[in-house]
């Protein structure tokens, strides 16, 4: 564990109003941000190729792709994390993104038997067990039920799991990149269960995927009826194959492995099944040898995405945007505080964009950085009053056997050159 | 003009509550939706390949793409519409999408000199003219100002332009597909103008693109200071090249050609410039030979996206989801009504998902279709009380020389087989 106790002097505090006022003051602020007077830059008087020659026409790209200059903005896996890439994970490049929506092509992947490539015409969803009418739905059948659109984050239970043992991976893509947030379109699961008629003895639901791992989880019927969706679209278009095309379960606020992808079967029963993925995995071994189970909700969490180890401050002292993400499986985020000095002093960040229950929230702190080293931290509070803990508080409560549900405060050390590093303060 | 006056009997009215109750009634409803009892479908007992063999691992697709079974969901151009694809348009496949967010790869394109492929390191934005301090910004400079995230629709002024002459193109992708809606991240333009210091004589802004067409428009300074953004991200990632990478202007609610892409220059002046694209184009020639100009706002509008000519009802009578989009450059949508009988009777649609000013709104009407022919229409009302007009009302007011700003009510005729066609009722 690379402990670090020295506190930085940190950048001078500037409220948003103060920052903007300072920005208008003239010469000093201009010099600080590096902006040039209009007559000082040859790129203004030169005519570039893109101004001189016609570009591609509207028939060039039926499905558009990012600029070649964004080729570094990709999901990345860490080969040594797992034995084989078919039962593994890659990570959302959080440090390159902004706002609260994750583009479909950059949503992290986690699968247990590779990506099932399903022909929707041959896909069926069966509902059976303790129901009045066992049913089989084609995709077309599902499209005939009333639909809803909802924005939710999805976080893998193992997100930040390596951090239980201290700072390990150098970049928020790797420490926190098993989270994404999209708009889902789907049918409330309640409508399908009502169609089948759940018997009064039906208290649990088993959801099973059609992939080679037949990923399977037990879900209490109350949650299934409350807010789960059977979703077929994300961000407006069909689900991506790695996200469960043609249909997945959406289990708002709860750990990602319960959001069964390639959903083929829903069985109603009277007790939880105790399948492999809810016994040997996705339980939390405590110090006393007992395991916590049914730890479904993803608790309040946040991370600064820039500056961060993959996104250093490249422009030197002066105006600097600190930004990050916060989320909670229990509802909305009420507040995010940011510290520049490893938790000694905190100031409220600005949450910008829609604040939606169980969705990512984007926060900013605009500072005038004086070039001194910083120990950056963010700390989120949700609408239930839950506050993100220190990692050491988690370890004291749960021991050090855990992999899942690490929502501890993350620290980046930023040196005088703007280079950031994953560290831990105690 | 393919006029059509015969009114269908239309499907039996079912309120949402009534519809769901009916769905629970059992045998009749099940037969109507085509859902099979669980033991009747061989695809449930067979083991498909995707359940038998491992799929691709997490290292297969650093930037993900849609399923091969979605290859038909693409932007499409209409070659005969324009002389050359470098000054042309392609269309968003609205009939295949749901919710209010358009995926970046499917946002329609309109450019006047092809797509500029810009290296952001060599791009500059200059602010000059009637300002205290002419300035040049690098992309890094822009990233140092406070950012905001906002969801807006963007509609081309020429969207539905062919419909002035009666129903022409068979599909909402072509009649209404010059609209998209994404989350923008950017800097309020006001902050940049304040940095430069607009002189009291400065009343207009000229925005110019760095593409081969040097697309240029005049914008009143009040609008520039009110809610325009200098945006560098869409749906969380960098702008796509065809949408102005690395930086574009966002002019909420106003016609798309003013949202200058590849933004390289902002000049402050004391009157509008009268450039080519605001004289010979993007003005509205009236019957008396005079032209309307400065017709900036996109008025209240809606369209049913499914069923529609490219998205017929494929499942026969019974439960049917009617869905569409509504939007207004003046604010939120307050109400959408749907008619099944060419405007004789109207019923309120359900608006689902966030209702955001100057963003797309998604609406649904869930019906139990009896298989009789329908004349489907939608009619939106915005928060200012503006109601979408009939196309003939527009023609009566503006004559038939117009191309732009057709926000008339669209009609789809649906026959007993569920096949839809673009028609006009009068």
From TrEMBL, chains A, B:
Catalytic EC class: oxidoreductase
Source organism, top-level taxon: Bacteria
Pfam families, sorted: Mo-co_dimer (PF03404), Oxidored_molyb (PF00174)
Gene3D superfamilies reported for this sequence: 2.60.40.650, Oxidoreductase, molybdopterin-binding domain (3.90.420.10)
Molecular function in Gene Ontology: heme binding; molybdenum ion binding; molybdopterin cofactor binding; sulfite dehydrogenase activity; sulfite oxidase activity
Keyword Ligase: no
UniProt signal peptide: none
Coiled coil region boundaries: none
TM segment ranges: none
Domain Oxidoreductase molybdopterin-binding: 112-272
Entry EC no(s): 1.8.2.1
GO biological process, one term: sulfur compound metabolic process
Keywords, in A-Z order: Metal-binding, Molybdenum, Oxidoreductase
Cofactor annotation: Mo-molybdopterin
Ranges of residues in domain Moybdenum cofactor oxidoreductase dimerisation: 293-410
Name of the molecule in the record: Sulfite dehydrogenase
Organism: Oricola cellulosilytica
């Amino acid at each position: 564990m690379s402990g670090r106790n020295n506190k930085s002097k940190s950048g001078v505090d500037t409220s948003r109003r103060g920052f903007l006022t300072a920005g208008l003051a003239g010469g000093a602020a201009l010099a600080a941000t590096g902006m040039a007077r209009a007559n000082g830059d040859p790129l203004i008087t030169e005519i570039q190729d893109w101004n001189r020659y016609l570009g591609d026409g509207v028939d060039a790209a039926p499905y558009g792709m990012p600029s070649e200059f964004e080729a570094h903005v990709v999901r990345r896996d860490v080969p040594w994390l797992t034995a084989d890439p078919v039962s593994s994970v890659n990570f959302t490049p959080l440090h390159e993104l902004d706002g609260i929506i994750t583009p479909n092509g950059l949503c992290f992947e986690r699968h247990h038997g590779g990506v099932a490539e399903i022909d929707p015409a041959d896909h069926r969803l069966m509902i059976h067990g303790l129901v009045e009418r066992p049913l089989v739905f084609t995709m077309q059948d599902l499209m005939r039920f009333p639909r809803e659109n909802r924005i939710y984050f999805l976080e893998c239970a193992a997100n930040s799991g390596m951090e239980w043992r201290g700072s390990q991976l150098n970049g928020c893509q790797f420490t926190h990149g098993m989270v994404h947030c999209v708009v889902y379109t789907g049918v409330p699961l309640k409508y399908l269960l009502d169609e089948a008629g759940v018997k009064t003895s039906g208290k649990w639901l088993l959801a099973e995927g059609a992939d080679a791992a037949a990923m399977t989880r037990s879900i209490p019927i109350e949650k299934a009826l409350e807010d789960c969706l059977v979703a077929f679209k994300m961000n407006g278009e069909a689900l991506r194959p790695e996200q469960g095309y043609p249909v997945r379960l959406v289990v708002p606020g709860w750990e990602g492995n319960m959001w069964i992808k390639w959903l083929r079967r829903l069985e109603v029963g009277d007790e939880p099944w105790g399948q492999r993925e809810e016994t040997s995995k996705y339980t939390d071994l405590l110090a006393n040898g007992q395991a916590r189970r049914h730890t479904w909700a993803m608790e309040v969490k946040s991370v600064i995405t820039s500056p961060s180890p993959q996104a250093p401050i490249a422009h030197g002292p002066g105006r600097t945007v600190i930004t990050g993400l916060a989320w909670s499986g229990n509802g909305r985020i009420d507040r995010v505080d940011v510290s520049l000095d490893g938790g000694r002093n905190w100031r409220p960040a600005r949450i910008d964009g829609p604040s939606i229950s169980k969705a990512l929230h984007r926060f900013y702190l605009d500072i005038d950085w004086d070039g001194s080293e910083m120990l950056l931290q963010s700390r989120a509070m949700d609408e239930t009053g839950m506050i993100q803990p220190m990692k050491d508080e988690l370890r004291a409560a749960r021991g050090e056997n855990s992999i899942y549900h690490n929502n501890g405060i993350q620290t980046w050390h930023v040196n005088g050159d703007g280079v950031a590093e994953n560290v831990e303060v105690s």
